[in-house]
Specification:
This protein has seven helices and 24 strands. It is an alpha+beta fold. The chain has three domains: about 110 residues, Outer Surface Protein A, domain 3 (Alpha-Beta Complex); about 160 residues, CAP (Pathogenesis-related Protein p14a); about 120 residues, Immunoglobulin-like, CATH 2.60.40.
């Protein structure tokens, strides 16, 4: 079964100082004797500066104390690295080779294991990664395949035993989250006349930022996220929904009529019954906060189904409504207008691979929603779910446990159709969010549609991005 995941791969380039050949300083000549037959007194010679030391073009060798070659490279007449270079370990084995042009890496750079196999092969142009990057384990099996354009990763995937465990790098994730934060959010043309209605919206900017935040979460969880749009009809229903919730003073998807005209009441109820709803202790723009809260969805009233999260991550979702009014917010989530939804195995939160801590609250439940076109409904009993601290050892091409499986303070199955049905919910305790903290998630006891036993396995590794890049504090 395919698995998604991710790990950071840093390669430190050698830092070498250009070696300069020294030329002896010129010694001033003594003054000539006079033509008088008498010895002339020696006038003091004018002080002349030594000629500047000039580098020689050609090979430069650096050696270890034991006499073995440490590095060999070439420089031009100005001391700038040009042409091929090689680095060697202290025992005389070559550890790296590549090419410089005008002091910058150009073309292919390779590093080697002590057994001679290629560890890393990169392509450079003008000192920047440009082209393919391939990393191998000690036996020569590929563990990383990436593509760069002018230093920016286009794709970056890490495999263990041929299974994809890290679909994209932390740099790719941060770059895309930052791009999403700046995209223009479009509002579609209304499909019907929007009538006068109760309520309103605190901030259009907050409404659009909430769409961007939703797109970011969907991107992280590998569900379609591009071209999310606001629907003015949905927004109007949500404005009325927030207003009626403010009047009754509580959250209710089927609120009682507080004395409104029947048409106004039904218009608001259409919003509450088709939307995620949210209440805050303070008034003001709430839509972004609401999206964060719906993705967390782990309070005692929601953890048994995490329905708000599942609606947020429903693959065919393409249009939403959003509104906040007098301390309440609503998001129309019952949309399935997205066409050509890619096939998928499961949707998880946190998702396989690298996952930014800024998008995951410390008390949030984990969830795995299985594609119903691939799996039977997961059983409420007989299912085994584990979350185990792990180390991804790329050089050995394996994943090894780094501790015992974590205990859960919640573990359940919900097969109701909140977005994707067939959802497995669990909340491990004792998680660490330090950079490099990785966990192997295993769900055993599943069945494919044909009854064949199945399992889901993937790695989650947390990383902490620069908050200034993503501007998305996680809910507490």
């Amino acid at each position: 079964m395919g698995v998604n995941q991710i790990a950071v791969f840093f390669v430190l380039g050698a830092c070498l100082s250009p070696a300069y050949a020294q030329q002896p300083a010129q010694t001033p000549a003594a003054p000539a004797a006079t033509g008088s037959g008498q010895s002339a007194g020696h006038a003091p010679a004018a002080t002349q500066p030594s000629a500047p030391r000039k580098p020689h073009a050609g090979y430069v060798d650096e050696k270890y104390d034991n006499g073995n070659l440490k590095s060999r490279y070439t420089v031009d007449a100005k001391g700038v690295k040009q042409g091929s270079y090689s680095l060697y370990s202290e025992d005389g084995k070559r550890s790296e080779r590549g090419v410089y042009r005008n002091g910058e890496l150009e073309g292919v750079r390779q590093t080697f294991y002590s057994n001679g196999n290629v560890k890393l092969q990169e392509s450079y142009r003008k000192g920047q990664l440009n082209g393919s990057v391939i990393a191998n384990d000690e036996n020569g099996n590929p563990v990383r395949a990436a593509e760069f354009n002018a230093g920016v990763p286009v794709s970056d995937r890490i495999l263990v035993n041929g299974i994809l465990v890290y679909p994209r790098s932390p740099q790719m994730i941060v770059n895309e989250l930052d791009r999403i934060h700046k995209v223009k959010v479009e509002t579609v043309q209304p499909t019907e006349v929007v009538p006068p209605h109760e309520g309103g919206n605190d901030s259009q900017a907050d409404r659009e930022d909430a769409v961007r935040r939703l797109m970011q979460y969907r991107y992280l969880c590998y569900v379609p996220y591009e071209q999310m749009k606001l629907d003015p009809v949905f927004c109007a229903h949500d404005e009325a929904a927030a207003a009626i919730l403010a009047v009754i003073g509580k959250l209710d998807h089927t609120p009682p009529n507080p004395g409104w005209p029947e048409d106004q009441y039904k218009y608001a109820c259409k919003g509450t019954s088709n939307s995620n709803i949210y209440q805050a202790s303070a008034r003001g723009p709430l839509c972004v906060d609401a999206v964060n809260d719906w993705m967390d969805d782990s309070d005692s009233a929601n953890i048994d189904r995490i329905g708000h999260r599942r609606w947020c991550l429903n693959p065919p979702l393409a249009k939403v409504g959003l509104a906040s009014f007098k301390g309440y917010a609503a998001m129309w989530s019952m949309d399935a207008s997205r066409k050509d939804v890619p096939d998928f195995d499961f949707v998880a939160y946190p998702s396989p691979g690298f996952f930014p801590t800024t998008y995951f609250g410390s008390g949030a439940a984990w969830s795995v929603s299985l594609n119903p076109s691939r799996y039977r409904k997961p059983p409420s009993s007989g299912l085994t779910v584990t979350v185990t601290p792990a180390q991804v050892q790329l050089e050995q091409n394996k994943i090894v446990p780094a501790g015992k499986p974590l205990e859960f303070n919640y573990n359940a199955v919900n097969n109701v159709g909140f977005g994707i049905p067939n959802c497995i919910i669990f909340r491990p305790i004792g998680l660490k969010y330090d950079p490099g903290s990785a966990y192997l998630v295993e769900v055993l006891g599943l069945q494919e549609l044909n009854g064949k036993p199945a399992a889901v396995r993937y790695i989650v590794e947390f990383f902490k991005p620069d908050p200034a890049k993503t501007e998305s504090p996680a809910p507490e």
